[in-house]
Amino acid sequence: QVQLVESGGGLVQTGGSLRLSCAASGGIFSINVMDWYRQPPGKQRELVAWISSSGNTNYANSVKGRFTISRDKNTVYLQMNSLKPDDTAVYYCHATQIGVGYWGQGTQVTVSS
Predict the structure, then answer these.
(1) Across residues 2-30, what is the average pLDDT?
(2) pLDDT at 73
(3) 3-state secondary structure of 17
(4) CA distance 80 to 7
(5) How many CB atoms within 10 Å of residue 49?
(6) Residue 9 in contact with residue 80, Cβ under 8 Å?
(7) Under a CB-based contact definition with an 8 Å cutoff, are residues 7 and 92 in contact?
(8) pLDDT reported for residue 14
(9) Residue 46 and residue 67: Cα distance in Å, rounded?
(10) Among 5, 9, 13, 63, which is disulfide-ready with 67 (CB 3.0 to 4.6 Å)?
(11) How far lies 100's CA from each of 27, 64, 95, in Å?
């Protein structure tokens, strides 16, 4: 069973930066892809970025050039630069292990205009 704990959310002004972290524990050796999702207020959850165990990455068009996903052993990061009010959401870490998905509890990111 994989446990994911996010941290690093908060309130930031437009144009600011935040770095989210997600620490994985418990049965981590078979984790392949780790992702960041977000759920804006009143909207559906959407994929923001993912990174494979080999380091391949992909991003939603809305964050390309502004967000960077990286991975170091048991932790995945999301560096968010040039933040906009539209980036306001609860951000969730997700990991897939042998076809089973696991979610973190989420961390709030609020970007003020």
Answers:
(1) 92
(2) 79
(3) coil
(4) 13
(5) 22
(6) no
(7) no
(8) 98
(9) 15
(10) 63
(11) 12, 27, 8
* 3-state per-residue secondary structure call for 36-97: EEEECCCCCCEEEEEECCCCCEEECCCCCCCEEEEEECCEEEEEECCCCHHHCEEEEEEEEE
Q: Tens digits of per-residue pLDDT, 20-57?
A: 999 998 866 678 899 999 999 999 999 999 999 889 99
Is there a contact between 96 and 28 (Cβ–Cβ < 8 Å)?
Answer: no
Give the residue among 4, 3, 12 at the shortest CA–CA distance from 82. 12
* CA angle in degrees (0–180, nearest 5) for 51-78-3: 70
Residue written as token pair 């524990």: 25
Q: What is the pLDDT of residue 98?
A: 83
Cβ atoms of 20 and 77 within 8 Å: the answer is yes
Task: Please answer whether residues 41 and 48 qualify as being in contact, where contact means their C-beta atoms are separated by less than 8 angstroms.
Answer: no
Average pLDDT value for residue range 68-96: 95
If you average pLDDT over every residue of the chain, what do you get?
A: 94
Residue 62, both tokens:
């809305």
81: which 2 tokens?
Answer: 């630069």
Strand-strand pairing, 31-39 and 18-25: unpaired
